[in-house]
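Fig. S4 source data, part A: sequence.
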Amino acid sequence: MVPGPARHRDRAGGARVHAVRARRRVRTQPESWGGQVTTAAGRLLRVEDLTVTYGEGPDAVPAVRGVDLTLDAGATLGLAGESGCGKSTLALALLRLLPRAATLTGRVLLDGEDVLTMRWGRLRAVRWAGASVVFQGAMHALNAVHRIGDQVAEPLLVHGGATAAAARHRAADLLEQVGLPAARTSAYPHELSGGQRQRVMIAMALACEPHLIVADEPTTALDVMIQAQILRLIEGLVAERGISLLMISHDLAVLADTCDRLAVMYAGRIVEEGPARAVYDAAAHPYGRALSEAFPRVGDPASRLAPRGLPGDPPDPAALPAGCAFHPRCPVALDRCAHDDQPLRAAGEGRTAACVRVEG
């Protein structure tokens, strides 16, 4: 048995430890988001001249170059492009989730507040309740040693201020809303199929009822039938709750079927933007046309037999070609394309395209 004085000293030491831990919890507790969509014309997200660069000086690599985007409350926007074009970097930059090696300039206005200049407490609140991310590759995004019910409940405990019992109940309800029985709350990620893990990611994204969801390739590595189920699930939940959606994919057909508008990205820049169906059916930029023709189309046997591809590889961001970055691969490039980069210009039907062929 511990002698009396020693026991008192031990209790006093334990009290000091608990006090320090309590102070740490207070300091790191994120503030409430409480955002309201009050900006002009219901605009929720506005990206202005966003540039993301890795490294410094002559070794700097531009991953995103002068991107401008807007997304209204309750609207859906698709972002398409090949691997390496900067789609995921752009998505992570919206919530400042990039590593310290990245330098961000420009503005990312979420409900009128600039995410790039927010202090840490405010930024944490935005990441929990203002906007949520459905990350690419659910198995890597989920914690392998925690039950999925605990992982879905965590945002409610950390940000929502819910009790443990209320958070567990809400987690079970969210899993049921995305098509998983409440009994699966006790399962570990490795015990679920790929489609089920993706549903868990969607439930986590919905936990704090965000205004914006960023879905980065939400159907990666899933078979066609499960892809369709996940896409319909996202589409239904977004429409039902009035959430704005930014969905990233290399498949224009998926985005045209899911989103209101579509932006095409190449070598870190937006090269075309407009109504999703119009861009998919008749892209104004040759890169957009190549993407739309890369997949077979329903009702078009010829496209199934010989889908068109695009020769060459995307350029190295550290050594972009002069002029239009797409011109070495472009089937309709002019001489001037090798010298003059093209700004976005009106291309009809509410669209813009960065191509000399739509000049005037």
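Fig. S4 source data, part B ends here. Residues 1-30, 36-41 have pLDDT under 50 and may be disordered.
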